[in-house]
Each structure stands twice: as C-alpha cells, then as structure tokens.
C-alpha cells in the first residue's frame, strides 16, 4: 500500500526558491533549465529511500562508537574520469582501508564514496581572471567546463542530465563491484598484503600481522567467506546545486515522506550552511541522513541552531557534523563545539574532514596539503573526543585510487618538486592510493588508543 504525501510537505520542497541560495550558477537560459529539471524529475531515482534508512541506522551506530564511517573520494568527480578503471581503483582503495580499519580496530566500517554525484563545487570567487580575460569560475562538471574559454565556462543545463547519467553508470559499476565478488574479504586482504610487503611501510608490520591472524582465525573457525563477498557501499555528495537535488527528490511510497534520491547521504558545505539560507531549508525537509561541514569559525550556538533546523527531534543517525578545523586549530576550536552539542543531548555523529582546513600552496605553485598536517588533524580530533568522553565517529577524506602526486609527504616522501610528476586534480589535492592506506593504518593506532 502506498501512503499519500501531505500536500504541505510537497509544497515545502519549493520554499528554498524564495530564499538566498549561495554558490549557485547564473544559468543563461531559463527555458533550457526548466526543460532539464523537468527531464530529471521524470527519470528513475538513483537510490532508494529504504537504503537511505539503512544508512541512517549505521550512522547512528557510528555516533555511539559501535561503527566507524569511512567516506572518501574525489574533491570533484569529472565526466571524463568516470571510467571503469578510475571507479574501480577508488572503490578498491576504500575497501582496502575499510578492511584495515575493521580487522585492525575490530569495528564495523560504514563505507561511503564521495562518488556518483560529486560534480558541483563551491568557489571562493564567481569569476576567474587570467591575463586580461575574466570568465565565470569553474563550478564543477554539472555546471560548466574547466577549459578557459567563454563557451566552456558558460553554465549549461544539459550538464544536469549528463551528471545524472554519469552518476547512474558509476553507481551501476559500484553495485556490481560490491556484490559480484570483487569486494570479497579474502581478495581485499590479499591486496593489502601487497601493500605491507613494501619496506617503506615497515612501521605497520605488527598491525598487518594482526589483521592477517584475525582473518586466518575466521577461516579456521569456518567463517562463511561467501557471505563476505558482498558489502554495503553508499553514495554521497555535497548537496550544493539545488536545481539538481530538487528534481531528484521523490516521495517514498512506504511513508509518504520526501527523500533526495540523488544519493544516500548529502552534506551541506561550509560555504552554504547559513541558517536562513536555501540549503539548510531544503535539506531540513528531506529524510536522508544529512551532514554539515563545520569550519573553525563555527560557534557552539551555530551548531545548536543547525540541530534545531535539521534534527529538531534528535533522531539518531540523521545528522552528522563533519568538522574541518585545520591541524593548527582543531585542539582549540573543537572542544567547545563538542561540549555544547553534548550538553544539548540530541545525538550527532562526529566525523573528521582533515583535508579542507589544511590547504597550502607549494613553493612550486601547486595547491597542496601536507600528509603530516592531515594526520595531525585526525590525531587532534581523536584527542579532543577522548578527553571529552565523546565518540570520534568517522573520517571524510579526499582520495583517489591512483598514483597521483598531489599531497606532500607520506612514506613515499612526495616533495615540492615531486608534485609536478602527476598532479591531476581540477580542484583540491587528493591522497593517492598509498597515502590512503597509510592513513588507514595510522587511524587503527588512534582507534586502539581511544
Ligand atoms: C569539499 O568537501 O570539497 C568542500 C568544498 O568542503 P568545505 O565545504 O568543507 O570547504
Ligand atoms: Co575539496
């Protein structure tokens, strides 16, 4: 039986149109935008409400310390890079990290990609100037093209449809990989053994040996490895472009409630979390689990006001706070925030984004981050939660499965000159495959200490 939605709930889904929506493009042609939105509204949902509900329960567990969220992927996906190899390598990296965390720290890991929809980017400026030429800023493949020409930079609503179809094919491959045997525990474990035989990673030998023993022990106990061939893998992106999110919102026939069916989990970015803005209003009305990024200027009162708007009844797993303070500020800024929210009593899941507060420009002119700063922010996040008796519930990171050279440091010691070797990102620098695995081993150390 299907439940009819409340007409007022449906009407409320358009309330954001009357509010200020930060970081939206200037579409040049209202008619083609209307047509693209209409087409999106008629296409099948990319995910189902029941899957979003299952994720909400898992995020609630992460909030209680009974699971750990691992959310990772590109800063910005691109249409050109939505290839089988690329998607496989990212999924593989996340699965490898998840096995290290699961068996190293004895904690179920909630696996989530910044994938299958991470196409819209907030920018610090609406325009970009090179020499004497000023053009609209690149806002992600869902809006315009990165090439620096007037044609490429003009927002094009047809891109909404290309984003949808590229997300659909990405999700299709992810679902095939995570149910078809590619993700089997024994396979992933075998890949990890390849990593730890490298002498550069000697430091992790002990944890690697323990993971190996844990998995052998399972085998000796007759574990059903066939059942471990399938893993849940969730899709997420920043809910930035409301002309995309609104048409992909659907009424769940079981409950009559709206869900944004472009992804299981959507987060509101640091630049669009204004309490009276369009994004907070919109995501207050859909029933997916929702995240909000919190930078170093966030006050305890801001956090409470966000809870009032996004999770007034305190439903566990509904709201994740993704803090991104920077290594130099996390130990000073995070405690007051966590204390205030904890005193309120409504549960949130605390997740650390150690990427976006640690940007620097290298001597050679690249936008980069230091692996040591990234790990220092993660360590600070664990220290703060340990001191307050609260739960470090997960990690949100920018990574790729490839061997790029975008983040400085790590055991492979990428230096200023090394960045040029393979710097491919169009927006923020990502951990490469090896750096991602190193992070997983170091987080096991932190989880064990906690
Ligand atoms: C991002 O996650 O790519 C991003 C832009 O983050 P933030 O909103 O935290 O700056
Ligand atoms: Co980014």
How would you describe this structure to a colleague?
With 450 residues, the chain is of the alpha/beta class. 41% of the residues lie in helices and 13% in strands. It has helices at 7-12, 30-42, 49-64, 84-105, 150-153, 158-179, 185-196, 205-220, 242-245, 278-284, 300-310, 330-344, 371-388, 433-449; strands spanning 68-73, 109-114, 127-130, 133-136, 234-238, 249-251, 258-260, 265-268, 290-294, 319-323, 349-352, 360-361, 367-368, 392-398. The strands form four sheets. An eight-stranded parallel barrel has the order 1-2-5-8-9-10-11-14, surrounded by five helices. A two-stranded antiparallel ribbon has the order 3-4. Helix 4 crosses helix 6, helix 7 runs antiparallel to helix 8 (205-220) and helix 12 runs parallel beside helix 13. The protein is globular and about 60 Å long. The termini are far apart. The structure holds phosphoenolpyruvate (PEP) and cobalt (II) ion. Cobalt (II) ion binds at residues 75, 356, 398, 427-428.
Number of strands: 14
Provide the CATH top-level class.
Answer: Alpha Beta
CATH architecture: Alpha-Beta Barrel
- Helix and strand succession? HHHEHEEEHHHHEHEEEHEHEHEEEHEH
State the helix count.
14
Q: What is the share of helical residues?
A: 40-55%
Here the CATH topology equals TIM Barrel
- Quote the average pLDDT: 96
Secondary structure category: alpha/beta
